[in-house]
Amino acid sequence: MTAYQDLSDHFGRIAAVSDALGILQWDNDVMMPVGASARRGESLAALNVLRHGMTTDPRLGDLIASAEADTGLGVWERANLREIRRIWTVETALPADLVAASARAVAACEMAWRQARAASDFPALLPRLAEVLRLQREIAVAKGERLGLSPYDALLNDYEPGGRSADIDLLFDDLAAFLPGFTAEVMERQARRPADPPLEGPFPVETQRALGLRMMAALGFDFTRGRLDVSTHPFCGGADDDVRITTRYDEADFASALMGVLHETGHALYEQGRPAAWMAQPVGRARGMSIHESQSLLMEMQACRSAAFLAFAAPVLREAFGRSGPAWEAEALRRRFTRVAPGFIRVEADEVTYPAHVILRYRIEKALIADQMPLSELPAAWNAGMAALLGIVPPNDRLGCLQDVHWPSGGWGYFPTYTLGAMTAAQLFDAARQADPGIMEAIAGGDFGPLVGWLRTHVHGLGSLYETPELLTRATGRPLDASVFKAHLHRRYLDEA
């Protein structure tokens, strides 16, 4: 057996363990009874340690070196080997006891977060979250020393390989300067329009669920390899060829759940479209979270808030809820789904104010990882940031710093990929429409095939064959360019308003 084949087999077994972890984590977040949380935490910790041990097997260093000397490897094998070395380098920076401690802390903190969020009780979460943060700092330092990165960049690298906070700072500072004036201009334009009639509920949960399933099918979700469920915070998870997405329902507002479903379906289409021949190998994984978030935001924001999509959706919505009248016409729905108004909840934010939510979280988590502010001051820092960036202050912590699961679940360094993803989504959608001018007409007819087909060729089916900048440049003809995102916002919210 060649060194490369040995590595390929080994990482195939690691992928199988990751699949088991993915399903256990999904069950933890969706169906598991509260009383099982302690034992589940132990199970997750044990499997994380097992996976870590497999990834740091002492044999791997020599095998990787031997495989790298093999001149007979093809393009995909070379890229797979590059990804194997990247993963091995990062994982060998961490001792097994730190991996286990982090897994236990995260499992306990996630459960505490659900209760604290419901009660709007940050002090109740503080001890558990402090332990997660302490361990994340240890992880960040260990990885940073191995990679020659700052602690925060070491965490960012897990979600955005090659990403650096210095580059993100420039992009986000530019957006933070651009968005307030642009938002004010859009809102002033909206204020001059007559108010749209309300979409009156209630909207039964079962009807919303059926609508979500119908829209998932329209976008191209494969129900033989996935499902839709309910969770406290919408997410896409599961395992290879078993993609689980979730949403949450409000009988007074169907739009929140529907847009959540469309967003998570974008993630799921990426997972279901990854290269089948490489599914269990590192090169077959999604490239990184800015690309992953671009797929969800491309569907939710770029495609499904367009006039074309809402022309298709309007009669479907009227039929689903048994409604009619001016509020349910396509143009009224377009105005409603592109209405800009600062709000407290990130996942319900409009496309224009959404980046401010991400910039806030990014700045706070950088400060916390660097130990530049006490965790106890998180609610005050959050509220001050909301006031500065969006001009509003949450009335309680449930609508403020407790709304997201990312920090309790150990997802430090993740948040900036949302806005990087929004910019990437605009660039990919623009390139897709230039390559196939019939995409919007197809969407107006409820056919996402041309758009998804383009994404399969230029993003999904490539897995991690290319590094993120090369993937984007190959697909769009240029590296990440914020001007494309700004032009999109201007066109949709001013030129077409």
TrEMBL record:
Keywords: Carboxypeptidase, Hydrolase, Metal-binding, Metalloprotease, Protease, Zinc. The active site is at residue 264. It catalyses: Release of a C-terminal amino acid with broad specificity, except for -Pro. Its cofactor is Zn(2+). Its EC number is 3.4.17.19. One of its GO terms (molecular function) is metallocarboxypeptidase activity. PROSITE patterns: PEPTIDASE_M32. Pfam families: Peptidase_M32. InterPro entries: Peptidase_M32_Taq. Zn(2+) binds at residues 263, 267, 293. It is an enzyme of class 3 (hydrolase). One of its GO terms (biological process) is proteolysis. It comes from the Bacteria. The keyword 4Fe-4S does not apply. Binds 1 zinc ion per subunit. PANTHER family: CARBOXYPEPTIDASE 1 (PTHR34217:SF1), METAL-DEPENDENT CARBOXYPEPTIDASE (PTHR34217). Belongs to the peptidase M32 family. Broad specificity carboxypetidase that releases amino acids sequentially from the C-terminus, including neutral, aromatic, polar and basic residues. This is Metal-dependent carboxypeptidase.
